[in-house]
């Protein structure tokens, strides 16, 4: 992880439905601050996050479980997940892995996928301060690009 960045550690504070768009929102809350960052996600990704929060083990590995298993089998470890940018109401993230020699392996990812993986790998989630600043000055004007509908009755509206 770059030391010169102003990173804020966050955790999942809630998983809720946006009443206006009927889209799931992951609400990230600062671990040692009052930071709150809502990220609109797709239904599949919200379900993957909720399953891990609730520690529900599916009969067969889901995509994020498969990715965790590949990371482990390749002898990599997850150092962190960082929400790195916000452009045109789209969040960007990076997964930072470490190889056996301690060298960083950086992967671009959607924040929802990165968060689902962070939960499975038990690694910290960070948000760059500039993302917090950009989010405070913008409001979502459209639904996320994930336009496939999935029943969301199986995951909780609020997670504390």
Which CATH top level class fits? Answer: Alpha Beta
Globally, the shape reads globular
Total domains: 1
Number of helices, where a helix is a run of at least 4 consecutive DSSP H or I residues: 4
Radius of gyration: 15 Å
Give the oligomeric state of the chains in this entry, treating copies of one chain as homo and distinct chains as hetero.
single chain
Largest sheet: 7 strands, mixed
Low-confidence stretches: 141-160
Number of strands: 7
Order of helices and strands: EEEHHEEEHEH
Strand order of the largest sheet: 3-2-1-7-4-5-6
The end-to-end span amounts to 28 Å
Helix/strand layout:
Blueprint: E1 7-17, E2 24-30, E3 36-40, H1 43-53, H2 63-73, E4 77-87, E5 90-98, E6 104-109, H3 111-121, E7 125-128, H4 129-136
Parallel strand pairs: 4-7
Antiparallel strand pairs: 1-2, 1-7, 2-3, 4-5, 5-6
Helix pairs in contact: 1-3, 2-3
Explained architecture:
This protein has a 7-stranded mixed beta sheet with strand order 3-2-1-7-4-5-6. It has helices at 43-53, 63-73, 111-121, 129-136, and strands at 7-17, 24-30, 36-40, 77-87, 90-98, 104-109, 125-128. The protein is globular and about 40 Å long. The model is unreliable at 141-160 (pLDDT under 50). It contains 4 helices and 7 strands. The longest helix has 11 residues, at 43-53. The chain has a single domain (7-136), classed as Bifunctional nuclease domain (Roll), CATH 3.10.690.10. It is an alpha+beta fold.
């Amino acid at each position: 992880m770059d030391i010169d960045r102003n990173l804020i550690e966050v955790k999942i504070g809630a998983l809720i439905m946006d009443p206006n768009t009927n889209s799931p929102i992951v609400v990230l809350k600062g671990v040692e601050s009052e930071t709150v960052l809502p990220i609109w996600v797709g239904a599949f990704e919200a379900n993957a996050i909720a399953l891990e929060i609730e520690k529900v083990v599916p009969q067969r590995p889901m995509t994020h479980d498969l990715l965790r298993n590949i990371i482990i089998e390749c002898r990599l470890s997850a150092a962190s997940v960082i929400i790195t940018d916000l452009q045109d109401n789209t969040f960007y993230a990076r997964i930072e892995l470490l190889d056996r020699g301690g060298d960083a392996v950086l992967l671009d990812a959607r924040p929802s996928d990165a968060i689902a993986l962070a939960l499975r790998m038990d690694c910290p989630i960070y948000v760059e301060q500039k993302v917090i600043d950009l989010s405070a000055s913008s409001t979502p004007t459209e639904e996320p690009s994930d336009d496939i509908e999935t029943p969301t009755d199986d995951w909780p509206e609020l997670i504390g």
